Amino acid sequence: MDLLRRYGGDAKVLAGGQSLMPLLNFRLSYPAALVDINRITALSYIQHEVGQLRIGALTRQRTIEFSALVREHLPLLYEATTLVGHLPIRTRGTIGGSLAHADPAAEYPAVATAMEAELVVQGSKGQRILRPEEFFVSYLTTALAPDEVLVEVRFPTPPPTSGWAFAEFARRHGDFALVGIAALLDSEGERCRRALSWSSLTVISTPQLNSAVISPAS
Ligand SMILES: Cc1cc2nc3c(=O)[nH]c(=O)nc-3n(C[C@H](O)[C@H](O)[C@H](O)COP(=O)(O)OP(=O)(O)OC[C@H]3O[C@@H](n4cnc5c(N)ncnc54)[C@H](O)[C@@H]3O)c2cc1C
């Protein structure tokens, strides 16, 4: 936090580097400093608590893919993770990096939005908990202040009777999706939460379409 504050917005957090390093290579980003968080092991964990799974921001996508807890409690997240790039990318890439990068074509912003996850953000002034619609502002833009770091994502665990689906269209397996959708159907069929992910400005949540799916007759 001190380093980020010292550079006042001219420093970049380095997590898995799978999005940041290409940006640096192409000179699309040229921060004065990189703050490497890879040795903060306390930011890498998957914990199950009553009603939620808490995932540390530095948890690698590959760890999420192979987590029995994720498979059992968050099958939507598991399914989406298998579609993130290729094995070497998932081995380095982190959940926090993907969310903080805020690429609307990425899988995790859509899953976080559909699941109404909580994004825990730590800054020099304390902690904030943001909903996805507060966190994602626009294309590659979040509500993170220059001295703030995403530290944890809290996913509510849906009841086992809930329905879910993740589908996307990409030109080749492992490519970013041209369009994708994450959907979660509450048990009893009372509510359908959905988020579209594609190459527009940001993830689009579609609660207004609920009535099209959850009709009185269904
Ligand atoms: C060839 C290729 C294909 C890919 N395909 C896909 C794909 O199909 N789907 C997909 O979703 N992604 C894809 N990715 C991106 C990949 O998922 C990245 O891992 C992810 O976007 C960023 O995670 P990272 O940990 O590597 O973050 P980094 O690259 O280290 O950082 C990304 C950004 O987030 C910031 N940041 C990182 N962590 C934090 C934090 N904890 N708090 C605040 N800011 C932070 C960094 O400062 C930077 O601005 C692909 C990448 C490559 C190279």
What characteristics describe this protein?
single chain, 218 residues, alpha+beta, Uridine Diphospho-n-acetylenolpyruvylglucosamine Reductase, domain 3, four-stranded antiparallel β-sheet, 10 helices, globular, binds flavin-adenine dinucleotide
The percent range for helix content is 25-40%
Spell the H/E element sequence.
HEHEEEHHHHHHEEHEEEEEEEH
**CATH class label:** Alpha Beta
Q: How large is the count of helical segments?
A: 10
What's the CATH architecture name? 2-Layer Sandwich
CATH fold-type name: Uridine Diphospho-n-acetylenolpyruvylglucosamine Reductase, domain 3
Average pLDDT works out at: 89
Protein structure class: alpha+beta
Question: What value does the Rg take, in angstroms?
Answer: 17 Å
Outline: globular
Total domain count: 1
**Oligomeric state of shown chains:** single chain
What's this entry about, in short?
By secondary structure, the protein is of the alpha+beta class.
Report what the structure shows.
The protein is of the alpha+beta class. It has one domain (2-210): Uridine Diphospho-n-acetylenolpyruvylglucosamine Reductase, domain 3. It is built from ten helices and 13 strands. It has helices at residues 2-7, 20-25, 61-65, 68-73, 75-81, 87-92, 95-101, 107-114, 132-135, 210-213; strands spanning 11-14, 33-36, 46-49, 52-56, 118-123, 126-130, 136-138, 141-142, 149-156, 163-169, 179-185, 192-198, 204-205. Strands 3-4-9-5-6 form a five-stranded antiparallel β-sheet. It starts with a helix and ends in a 5-residue tail after the last helix. Mean pLDDT is 89; it is low at 214-218. Bound molecules: flavin-adenine dinucleotide (FAD). Residues 12-20, 22, 57, 84-85, 89, 92-94, 96-98, 100-101, 106-108, 144, 149-150, 176 line the site of flavin-adenine dinucleotide (FAD).
